[in-house]
């Protein structure tokens, strides 16, 4: 498992007076990374000091602020979804200082390169620099987290593969105030990425097995990006029984079926299930020919059934297509159950 630290610039709204192009690029980066966070098997971190500063200065991307920015710059982004994902990130992400053994560092000659890809404003620059010096200390004393941490930067300038951290540590303390380093020069290079594709470029489906429902969501995301060119994850979720039905049938341990579920789910999400030889059909209220399709309240979602495999047991999958608030095309999907072809056609609500 990797630990990914989000650049504080991603988590604060652009400066007042920023150009429309800059604001648009920020929206695209934030949207892409929050979509990645939602379906990731990795641990995501943020700087607690930088986050607290954003709260104090009212620069967090709230729904109202996001909506105001899109209107001001005439941008077309789903601010409701971005706001929801951002709130979940703040709730679920780990604070970097909680994960490090080095809790307090005094140092001189601190240096971070390339500076243009980290922070451009105070006090965030000071806050982030202090956190990264603690990372360098943990790396020096061979703590695993520091060697598994990746820095997630905004896209700016030419690509860089590393974030270089160096300083002279005057004193570094752990929780119990024990000194772990003193008068010690430290240098550490953090892998640096600027696009979600950087995470997935070397990934395979096998990498996601063994990580439960989060692993399957990440595998679906991999299919969307690699096979369908979808950079931002569509809105989807697993119903209360979906992962349970996969696990109880042992499908989470079968790489062929695990992969098939991920591929088919991706096809559903891009709206191509009808053309993919999956025998897509309505899940009806009764077996009577012409019976109406099942619909649930209050979201008016429609129930669907498709074929995962035709030979042997014959696996099927049920899902809900949830319409947009104006009754138009499906705005999101909920995967409900995986079952055998001879099982009763009952969909989990």
Topology:
Elements: E1 3-6, H1 20-38, E2 43-46, H2 48-56, H3 63-72, H4 79-92, E3 94-95, H5 96-99, E4 104-113, H6 124-140, H7 144-147, E5 149-152, E6 162-173, E7 179-193, H8 196-200, H9 212-228, E8 236-238, H10 242-248, H11 255-269, E9 281-282, E10 295-296, E11 301-307, E12 315-323, E13 330-340
Parallel strand pairs: 1-2, 1-5, 2-3, 5-7, 8-13
Antiparallel strand pairs: 4-6, 6-7, 9-11, 10-11, 11-12, 12-13
Helix pairs in contact: 1-4, 3-4, 9-11
Describe this structure in words.
The chain is α/β, with parallel strands linked by helices. It has two domains: 3-196, no CATH class; 204-340, no CATH class. It is 35% helix and 24% strand. It is built from eleven helices and 13 strands. It has helices at 20-38, 48-56, 63-72, 79-92, 96-99, 124-140, 144-147, 196-200, 212-228, 242-248, 255-269, and strands at residues 3-6, 43-46, 94-95, 104-113, 149-152, 162-173, 179-193, 236-238, 281-282, 295-296, 301-307, 315-323, 330-340. It has a seven-stranded mixed beta sheet. A hairpin with a 6-residue loop joins strand 12 and strand 13. The chain is elongated. The two termini are 33 Å apart. The model has no long low-confidence stretch (mean pLDDT 87).
């Amino acid at each position: 498992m990797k630990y990914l630290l989000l650049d504080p610039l991603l988590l604060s709204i652009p400066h007042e007076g920023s150009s429309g192009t800059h604001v648009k690029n920020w929206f695209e980066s934030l949207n892409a990374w929050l979509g990645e966070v939602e379906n990731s098997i990795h641990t995501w971190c943020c700087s607690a000091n930088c986050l607290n500063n954003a709260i104090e200065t009212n620069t967090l991307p709230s729904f109202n602020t996001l909506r105001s920015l899109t209107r001001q710059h005439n941008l077309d982004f789903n601010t409701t979804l971005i706001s929801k994902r951002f709130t979940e990130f703040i709730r679920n992400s780990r604070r970097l200082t909680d994960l490090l053994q080095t809790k307090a560092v005094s140092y001189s000659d601190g240096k971070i390169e390339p500076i243009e890809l980290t922070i451009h404003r105070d006090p965030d620059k000071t806050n982030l620099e202090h956190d990264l010096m603690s990372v360098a200390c943990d790396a020096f004393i061979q703590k695993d987290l520091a060697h598994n941490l990746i820095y997630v930067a905004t896209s700016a300038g030419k690509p860089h593969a590393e974030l270089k951290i160096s300083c002279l540590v005057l004193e570094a303390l752990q929780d119990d105030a024990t000194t772990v380093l003193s008068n010690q020069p430290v240098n550490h290079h953090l892998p640096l990425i600027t696009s979600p594709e950087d995470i997935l470029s070397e990934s395979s489906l096998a990498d996601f097995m063994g990580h439960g429902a989060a692993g399957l969501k990440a595998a679906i995301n991999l299919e969307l990006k690699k096979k369908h060119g979808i950079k931002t994850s569509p809105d989807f979720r697993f119903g209360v029984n979906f992962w349970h039905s996969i696990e109880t049938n042992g499908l989470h341990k079968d790489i062929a079926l695990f992969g098939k579920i991920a591929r088919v789910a991706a096809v559903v999400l891009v709206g191509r299930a009808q053309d993919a030889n999956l025998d897509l059909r309505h899940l009806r209220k009764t077996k009577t020919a012409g019976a109406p399709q099942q619909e649930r309240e209050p979201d008016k979602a429609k129930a669907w059934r498709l074929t995962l495999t035709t030979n042997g047991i014959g696996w099927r999958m049920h899902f809900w297509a949830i319409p947009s608030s104006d009754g138009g095309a499906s705005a999101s999907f909920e995967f409900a159950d995986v079952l055998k072809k001879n099982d009763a056609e009952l969909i989990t609500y």
